[in-house]
Specification:
This is Sulfite exporter TauE/SafE family protein. The protein is mainly alpha-helical and 226 residues long. Helices cover 77% and strands 0% of the residues.
C-alpha cells in the first residue's frame, strides 16, 4: 500500500467531519442520551464501542474492495490497471472536495448504490435500540457502518488501489480514525468543536486541500498511464 493512500483516507475522514455530523452524528448523540441522566452509567463505553463496530465495518468493506481489485489487476497490466484505478480515486476525491466545499452536490447521488442493502440492515439496527449494555453498541455500530454514504464510497475508491485486502482494510481504518473527532464531539456534546467542524470556512479550506491532493494524484496517474 502506498503510504499516501493511508494519509489521504485519514484526511478525507477528518476533513469530511461536517458530513459525518449530518449522516451519523444524530445516531452517535442518541446512543448517549439514554445514559446521560444516570450518574452511575458512563456514556463513553457506549460511544467507544459504537465507533469500534462502525470502523470494523469500514475495514471489512475495504478488505473486500481492495482484494477484489487486486485480483482483477493481476489478470492484466498491473501498473496500467492500478494507475487507471488511481485516476478514478483522484477523480472521486476532486468530486468529494467540491461536495465538502458546498460547490457541487453530485457525490451524494452515488449513495443510492447502497440503499438496497441498507433497507435490509436498517430494521436490524433499529431492533437493537435502546442499547441495554455497552457491548450491544458494537453490533449496532457495525450495522450502521453500512449506511449509504458518499464519503465512505469515495474513500473505498482509494481502498481499491491499495493493492491487497489487508491494505484496503488499512485505508478504511485510516478513514475511520479520521472521522472519530467529529463522532466523539457529537457524542460527548462538545458544542464548540461541533461549531468549528460545521463552519463553512473550515469546510472550504478542507475542500481545497483535498482538491489539491486529488489533482496531484490524478496528474501522477495520467503520467503512469501514458
Amino acid at each position: 500500500m502506498v503510504t499516501g493512500d493511508f494519509y489521504a483516507a485519514f484526511i478525507i475522514g477528518l476533513m469530511g467531519a461536517g458530513h459525518c455530523l449530518g449522516m451519523c452524528g444524530g445516531v452517535s448523540a442518541a446512543i448517549t442520551l439514554g445514559v446521560q441522566n444516570n450518574q452511575h452509567t458512563s456514556r463513553w463505553p457506549y460511544l467507544v464501542l459504537y465507533n469500534f463496530g462502525r470502523i470494523a465495518s469500514y475495514m471489512i468493506a475495504g478488505a473486500i474492495i481492495g482484494g477484489a481489485f487486486a485480483n482483477l489487476a493481476s489478470y492484466g497490466s498491473q501498473v496500467t490497471a492500478l494507475a487507471s484505478l488511481r485516476l478514478l480515486a483522484a477523480t472521486m476525491m476532486i468530486l468529494l472536495a467540491l461536495y465538502i466545499g458546498q460547490w457541487w452536490h453530485g457525490v451524494s447521488k452515488i449513495e443510492v448504490i447502497g440503499k438496497g442493502l441498507w433497507r435490509f440492515l436498517s430494521p436490524m439496527a433499529t431492533k437493537l435500540l435502546p442499547l441495554r449494555s455497552p457491548i450491544a453498541a458494537i453490533p449496532f455500530g457495525a450495522l450502521w457502518g453500512w449506511l449509504p454514504c458518499g464519503l465512505v464510497y469515495s474513500t473505498l475508491s482509494w481502498a481499491a488501489v491499495a493493492g491487497s485486502a489487508t491494505s484496503g482494510a488499512s485505508v478504511m481504518l485510516a478513514f475511520g480514525l479520521g472521522t472519530l473527532p467529529a463522532m466523539i464531539a457529537v457524542g460527548s456534546m462538545a458544542n464548540q468543536l461541533q461549531k468549528w467542524l460545521k463552519n463553512l470556512y473550515f469546510k472550504r479550506a478542507s475542500a481545497l486541500l483535498l482538491l489539491a491532493y486529488g489533482v496531484h494524484t490524478g496528474y501522477i496517474a495520467i503520467k503512469q498511464i501514458m
